[in-house]
Each structure stands twice: as C-alpha cells, then as structure tokens.
Amino acid sequence: MLTDSLITLVTECFRNNNVTVPRASAPPLGLGLGLLRVGDCRRFTEDGLVLLTQDGAAWYLLPYLAAALLLFFVYRVAFLPVDRVKDLTEVGWGCLGGGRKASLAERIREVQRLRKKGNLPPVYPNGWFAVAESRELAVGQVKSVQVFGQTLAVFRGLGGEVHVTDAYCPHIGANMAVGGVVKGDCLECPFHGWRFRGSDGKCVDIPYSSKVPRTASVKRWESRELSGFVFVWHDAEGRDPLWELPEVPQVENGNWTYRGRTVHQILAHIQEMPENGADVAHLGHLHVPSIFKGADLRDIFAYNTLLDIAKHSWSGEWQARGEPEPHVADLTVTHAFSLFGGRLKLFSMTVKVEQLGPGVVYLYFNTFVGSGVLVQTVTPLEPLRQKVVHQFFSSRTFIAPIAKFVIESEARHFERDIMVWNNKQYLSQPLLVSEDRFIVKFRRWYSQFYSENSPKFSFTNENSLDW
Question: DSSP letters along 309-352, please?
Fold first, then answer.
C-alpha cells in the first residue's frame, strides 16, 4: 500500500536522524482512533503507524505524511500523462438513461437494430490505420487485434522491429497471438510450434517435420511504426502502399514529450469522423457551450446562469491538396474562449490540421506556452464500429498541467460529437446550403479511398444486417 510505504519512509527518516519531541511540547491529539499522548507506544491499528520511542511523538509525523500524500495527489493529477479510456457504453448514450452496464448494452443494441443506417459507402476504405500503440507493445510481446472484421497478430521481434500478420495459423487454425511466443523475428504457434517469420509470413520451422511445405505461410501486413502508433496498410485491391505517412520529427527525436491519450469507440460509419473536419458550421453550434457543461447534449444546451457566461467561438477553412499529395487535406481552425458574450477573451489559438487519408489526422498546436501535436487515429473494428485514439505530444514549455487541460477539453468536445454519431443516420444525399460547401468538397476527396472491391454493408431483412 502507498500509505504503508510512506509511513515506512518517514519512520526511517526520523529514526536515522534520531528525532524525538520533548514530552512537554506534545499536546494530546484526537485522530478518531482514541486520545493519543506522548510516550504512548500503542500501535495505530487503522493505519499501521508505530510510535518511534517512549519520548517520540507519532503526531509529529502526521503533517509530513499528509504533505507527502497531498504532493503525490497533486503530481498524479497535474503531471502524470492522461489515460482517458472509455468503454463503448460509457459515452454517447445519455439519452438512454442510467442503469446497469449490461442493461444499457441491451438498449444500445436495440437502438442500433432499429436505427436507419442510410445508403452507406463501403465500410473499409483504403489507407493506413492504427492497430496498436507503440508503448503497449514491448520487445517479445504479441497482441491479438481485431480490425476490418479480421483478427491480426501484432508482435515486436527481439530486435525491436514490429511485424503484423494474420493471427490464425494455417495448420489447424489456432490464434497465434493467444499464447504464441516471439522467437527472434518469428512468431511461434502455441498449438504445434510452427514458426512464422514476421518479415514475409513464411513458415521457417515445423519442430516435428523434416520438411516445411512451400505453401506454408500467413498473410503479412505492410506496417509502419511512427508517431506513437503501429499502422497497417489496408487495400481492397491488394495493392502495395500508394503513399506514406509523414513523421512528426519532434515526436520521433524525443523533443516533444508524451502527455497522454484518450480512447473511444463509436457506433457509426468511419466516414462520419473525418467529415467532421470539413463540417465547419457544426463548430459554431455544438461546440460553442463551455466545456464545463460537459458532453451530454441535454446538458450543454440547457440554460445555466453560471456556466453560460463562458463560451467558445470557432472559424475554419478546409481544403484538399493536389498532386503529389492528393491523399492529404488541410484544415485551419481558429478557436477562442471568452466570457460575458465574448467581451472578455481569455485566449485564442490557431490549430493547423492535416488529414492523412481516411484514418489519420495530425493537429498542430502553436501557443504562447509552446507547441505540440495531437495525433488522431480512426480504425474500423467492424463495419459500423470505430476505435478512435488521440495521443498528445508537446514541447517542454507546454507544461504537463496545461497539456492535460488541452487533452481533457478536446475529449469533452469530441464526446459531444460521439453522442451525435451514435444516434444519427448517414445521408448519401444530404440537404445542404451554400455555407456547407466544404462537406461537398470533402466527400469528393474522400471517395478516392474507395475502390471496386471495397466491402459494402447490405441489408438482408428488416431486423438484421449483414455485410
């Protein structure tokens, strides 16, 4: 226990320095444990603290213990990286009320069954997608990952390089990521010991056979590790990567520090998330109420005398790039936070956003306290279920407490969008006005990531869905 460790540390410190307190200077102290006096050698039965000597005073240690606990709490809240991981049922379903998680999950399934899905685009676009976070994959570790409706094995070889293959062994079908062992740059199946090389997927050893069949192999996925993630290339036509993800030099060389992450799951089509960037008009409504009003849509638009004195204001421009980077789009967003209807502006900043294909976004911050980047990844786990991870890196002057506030604020805004996405219908032909022109441009740009064999979602009957 943390408390026991601190007690031991403080006790040793006083013992090593032979600290005692004169009997006359030690008044009685009531601690809810009974009245304790100097010279009392009884044990504090509730926290395990033992008086040092006959002339020592346990009460003398308590301020130091309290200060140590307070410092640890402040450090944890202000300086440790954010780790905001939300379950599928935790965000975006306030409209369904509270209750047990199992009951809520059933209600969510019912809403999804009855919700009109619209005329959906293909469910898995072509591009780079995150399948793991680098810090969660140690040398010699293997993880089973479900993406694109498939199961992959992601492992880090003993040389430090990451490999991604299909998870199921072609021998009899065991999941090699469940109990499999990394041997060099190979993954060994836990069932019969067949060993597959990560660099090309070929089987290199069958422990009980003198010969390895030439066809013995698993699919190897083209992968890259950068910006704190492991990415794989998905292409419905089986093509090699058509473009590469750029590095963020300050992240790769360590000049920017990792400040934390948020993880969410969303029940919607993957195109809904990146389309948000081009939907500049929604910023001026959904994201105007103060973040202190939370993420539940029923709360943020409810009148609150105190919280409504603060508000956000936004403006933005979205533009697709041409050759040689047609897979990239740029968004420039100006964000201000003010009080009293905008009369007192607390801060303003401009965020430069790069959309890199269908599943990766870099958001660059440049403020008076320093610079940083928020890396957003959107990965389809199955046709209408997306995993979205944000990681934030910043310069050392962009200190941890400020960086944590940025992460938490971004999460509150993002969770407002989640409540919309979880309950909306995708419209292939939306009713737009001239001010929505960026949405039209975005959909034209995004369509390049679909190809002839991109899998589609189809309706089989009124109450069930198949794809």
Answer: GEEEEEEEEEEE--TT-TTEEEEEEEEEEEETTTTEEEEEEEEE
Average pLDDT of the chain, as a whole number: 86
Digit-coded pLDDT (tens) for 315-356: 999 999 999 999 999 999 999 999 988 788 888 889 999 999
Per-residue pLDDT tens for 63-74? 888 888 888 877
**In Å, what is the CA distance from 96 to each residue of 297, 302, 303?**
12, 18, 21
Q: Which of 339, 344, 348, 342 is nearest to 368 (CA)?
A: 348
Three-state secondary-structure class, residue 307: helix
* Paired tokens of 439: 């949405």
Distance between CA atoms of residues 355 and 255, nearest Å: 23
Q: Which two tokens stand for residue 53?
A: 């000597």
Of the candidates 249, 138, 192, the residue with the CA atom closest to the CA atom of residue 203:
192
Helices 62-78 and 2-16 meet at what angle, rounded to 10?
Answer: 130
Peptide linkage before 81 cis (omega within 30 of 0): no
Specify whether the CB–CB gap between 158 and 139 falls below 8 A: yes
Q: Measured between alpha carbons, how far apart are the two ends of the chain, in Å? A: 51
Instruction: Report whether pLDDT(268) > 70.
Output: yes
| Residue 268 and residue 120 in contact, taking contact as beta carbons nearer than 8 Å | no
Contact 133, 389 (CB under 8 A): yes
CA distance 154 to 143: 5
Residue 423 has a CB neighbour count (10 Å cut-off) of 17
Classify 228 in phi/psi space as left (phi over 0), alpha (psi -120 to 50) or beta: left
| pLDDT tens digit sequence for 162-211 | 999 999 999 999 999 999 999 999 999 999 999 999 999 999 999 999 99
Q: What CA–CA distance (Å, rounded) separates 341 from 348?
A: 15
Q: Is the pLDDT assigned to residue 381 strictly greater than 50?
A: yes
Q: Write down the residue that tokens 């976070």 correspond to.
A: 133
Reference 176, options 208, 148, 144; nearest CA is 144
